[in-house]
């Protein structure tokens, strides 16, 4: 579902995978799709060197790098460049996928996926959106101890509307509260997520938390609002 405005075609992509064949395949597919591949490396330090302090729209990152690095440090190092992270992983590495999502990755696409699915995922992440798919749902669902912030009803209402895309001023109007009150609720939501080790500094992060905790639908067919 490409946009006609050319945004997807202008996206810049980097690839981090310690298997050369995977890098070559992804590079060819990305170029065929109109993306500019700015770097392809075997590990994150090499990527940082290749970027030279700059960023790209999306870094397609393998979780199973052979240099002894951790998932969290790799994801955060890439995010520090200003680039978004799309995890490219073997589907059964649920714990590592969950760690990557917690560190701030925008989504995960299995290595067994058709290349068209990978390209579509890159397009989604390049537009600044979170990739909602079954792999993300499985990673969250597999961790029965995944810490949920204990949000009050009004805090959940504010989060639901704000993470759905409404500006905070319209959230306040819809709930019949002052803009300052809505801001206070949102600040408390962020504080509670920090308390459980799941910070959400941006609106995209809040969307991720809302979906993870069932406040918004998007990961399964059961609907996320059952626990209002």
From TrEMBL:
BP GO terms, sorted: phosphorelay signal transduction system; regulation of DNA-templated transcription
Modified sites of kind 4-aspartylphosphate: 62
| Keyword Phosphoprotein on entry | yes
Keyword DNA-binding in annotation: yes
A GO molecular function assigned to this protein is:
DNA binding
Q: Where is the signal peptide?
A: none
The family database entries (InterPro entries) matched by this protein are listed as: CheY-like_superfamily (IPR011006), Sig_transdc_resp-reg_C-effctor (IPR016032), Sig_transdc_resp-reg_receiver (IPR001789), Tscrpt_reg_LuxR_C (IPR000792), WalR-like (IPR039420), WH-like_DNA-bd_sf (IPR036388)
> Where's the Response regulatory domain?
12-126
Tell me the Pfam families matching this sequence.
Answer: GerE, Response_reg
Keywords attached to this entry? DNA-binding, Phosphoprotein
Q: What is this protein called?
A: DNA-binding response regulator
Species in which this protein is naturally found: Agromyces bauzanensis
């Amino acid at each position: 579902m490409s946009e006609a405005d050319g945004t997807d075609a202008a996206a810049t992509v980097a690839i981090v995978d310690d298997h050369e064949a995977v890098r070559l395949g992804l590079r060819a597919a990305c170029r065929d799709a109109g993306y500019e591949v700015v770097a392809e490396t075997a590990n994150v330090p090499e990527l940082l060197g290749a970027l030279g302090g700059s960023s790209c729209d999306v870094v397609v990152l393998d979780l199973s790098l052979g240099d002894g690095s951790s998932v969290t440090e790799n994801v955060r190092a890439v995010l520090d460049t200003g680039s978004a992270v799309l995890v490219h992983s073997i589907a059964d590495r649920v714990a590592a996928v969950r760690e990557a999502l917690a560190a701030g990755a925008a989504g995960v696409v299995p290595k067994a996926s058709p290349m068209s699915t990978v390209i579509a995922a890159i397009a989604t992440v390049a537009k600044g959106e979170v990739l909602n798919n079954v792999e993300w749902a499985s990673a969250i669902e597999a961790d029965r101890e995944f810490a949920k912030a204990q949000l009050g009803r009004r805090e959940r209402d504010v989060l639901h509307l704000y993470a759905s895309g409404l500006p905070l001023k319209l959230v306040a109007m819809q709930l019949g509260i002052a803009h300052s009150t809505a801001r206070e609720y949102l600040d408390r939501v962020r504080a509670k997520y920090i308390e459980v080790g799941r910070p959400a500094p941006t609106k995209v992060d809040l969307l991720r938390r809302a979906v993870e905790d069932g406040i918004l639908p998007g990961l399964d067919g059961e609907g996320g609002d059952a626990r209002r």
